[in-house]
Amino acid sequence: MFVYNIAMDKFKIVIDTNVIISGLHSSSGKSYELLQIIDDKNIRLSISIPLILEYEEVLLRKKKDFGFNKQDIDNFLDYFCKIANQQRIFYLWRSYLKDLKDDMVLELAFESQSDYIITYNIKDFKGIEKFGIQVITPYEFLKKLENTI
Length: 149
Description:
By secondary structure, the protein is an alpha/beta fold. The chain has helices at 17-25, 30-36, 49-66, 70-83, 100-111, 138-148, and strands at residues 11-15, 43-47, 85-86, 116-118, 134-136. The protein has one domain (6-148): 5'-nuclease (Rossmann fold, 3-Layer(aba) Sandwich), CATH 3.40.50. The protein is 48% helix and 12% strand. α1 (17-25) runs parallel beside α3 (49-66). The longest helix is centred in the middle third of the chain and has 18 residues, at 49-66.
């Protein structure tokens, strides 16, 4: 008898900082929609310590723009860490992409065997297809997810 394993079919993703910022800034866009379902059983989100630190740095800098305080940001990041696959990075490729912070996202996606990097800066990840990783927007990801359910 064949047993269907849903874990094999999960969408393995890394979310770029610009998507987090966009999703917290406005409740009307696709980034917000993605953040609302980030704990979906069909999604395996990966994070690393450097990426969480970047999220924190940017969120703390922009907290007044969002109407958040430090505790709100801590709570958000704690939840993110709780639901995500916490991936260790054992080597660095610096520099493969133009921006070292984008390299950090690529390294995480590669090490965690993620299928997608979700970002609004598609052009910043030019050439990573050879690693088997697709770069897509939140809208494109949500469409893929919708088509599999």
